[in-house]
Amino acid sequence: MFSSQTSSFQESIDVEEKDADFDSEELGAYSPRVQHISSYYSIYYYQNTSLTLLDSSLPAEAEPELRSYISRRLSKGALLGGMGNIATVELSVPEQAVGCYCCLLEQERSPEQPEADGNGWVVCLLGGSEKGLQSSLTPEMQNLESEVRPYLSRWYEESVMHIHRVVQLVQTNISYLLYAALSHTHVEVTGADERTKTDVTRFIKAASLQGLVQEEPSTASLCKTVSEDSPTDLLIDCASSPPAFTNAVSNRFCDDWIQAFINAAERFNPFLLRQILENFKLKAIQDMNNLKRFIRQAEMSHYALFRCCLFLQSCGNGDVLLQNARAEHSGLPEACSIIRVLEEFLAEQAS
User: Fold this and answer.
1) Which of 48, 64, 120, 237 supports an S-S bond with 106, CB 3.0-4.6 Å?
2) CA 21 to CA 39: how far, in whole Å?
3) Is it the case that residue 261 has pLDDT exceeding 80?
4) Closest by Cα among 293, 294, 318, 296 to 308
5) Residue 283: how many CB atoms within 10 A of its CB?
6) From residue 166, how far is each of 162, 238, 263 by CA, in Å?
7) Tens digits of per-residue pLDDT, 102-111?
8) pLDDT mean over 198-218
9) In what order do the strands lie in the sheet with 187-190?
10) Which of 218, 213, 160 is nearest to 183 (CA)?
11) What's the pLDDT at 181?
12) What is the model's pLDDT at position 7?
């Protein structure tokens, strides 16, 4: 849900720690000498008396100072669920002292999860002076809990469970989606509700290497080049059970990952599913980098060309790797000639 902007993503701090340096009564006043005022934000998850950073735009040295201040406020019971609090804080920022709006959004209580009582999220907005925030933010933030809290309460369903739902939906046909993601094939879903369509789209995006594989400067659009080879879309009709696939294509590399996805889904472990998907992408990227290295070596050595042929034959993903390599090296004649030889080799092996 949140993309961490600091190196302290998983760092937590005990709210019972006493740090008088950041007591709200000793934070000092806002200095009017600073003319240019920047704005910042920080979002934390509060659980079992500890704060975990989710996202922040504060400088790395200032964020722990804010977290210590919030911890003191929480340990004193000064932050109540759904009620914002505005104070002046001194941080390691150019302004030195800034106004800070903090709001604790408590997690909804559930009989199934009594241990979650008291957990929640702390949203902090910083900038300007305490008095300025008091006059400008108070009217705007009255609806903060009603507007933000419902979204935060759905973070698990929205950000984690979509991979699990897709695997449960397509089962062993997951290899078709993996192949479509790697080959930049468009996927169209029919006969399904909007959430299912969104789940599939997000799964394809999460499995795709678009933006991760380094492209040559002469290649304006990798997807456009690859799509010329695969003009047909992958069609998924969810009106039937199980869903019917049209124009479905896979290869040995994608097939080898089926069982890992199925096993994790049966164990109802969505976090493991996400890790498996990341491992799938990592392996594809490693193979792509190996192929590019072999292609460079093959321009000067016939033995390297032979090694490249063996690699493509054994990896099980040669068609997709060559597809991407041809798009990335379209402006390099020597590399293109090597790739044509490799494509002929694969075609002969397939026949």
Assistant:
1) 120
2) 23
3) yes
4) 294
5) 15
6) 6, 12, 14
7) 888 887 665 5
8) 76
9) 187-190, 234-237, 244-246
10) 213
11) 94
12) 37
Query: CA-CA distance, 189 to 156, in Å (whole number)?
Result: 24
C-beta atoms surrounding 295 within 10 Å: 23
What amino acid is encoded at 195 in this protein? R
**CA–CA separation, 291 vs 296, rounded Å?**
9
Interatomic CA distance for residues 122 and 45, integer angstroms: 6
pLDDT (tens digit per residue) in 135-152: 555 555 555 556 665 665
Question: The tokens 């959004």 sit on which residue?
Answer: 105
210-255 per-position pLDDT tens digit: 766 554 444 344 444 444 554 589 999 999 989 999 999 999 999 9
Structure tokens at 160: 């984690």
- Identity at 253, one-letter amino acid code: F
| Token reading at 11 | 């760092």
DSSP code, position 242: S
CA 293 to chain centre: 28
Structure tokens at 163: 């991979």
- Tokens encoding 170: 């397509």
Exposure string over 5-43, b if 16+ CB within 10 A, otherwise e: bbebeeebbebeeeeeebeeeebeebeeeeeebeebebb
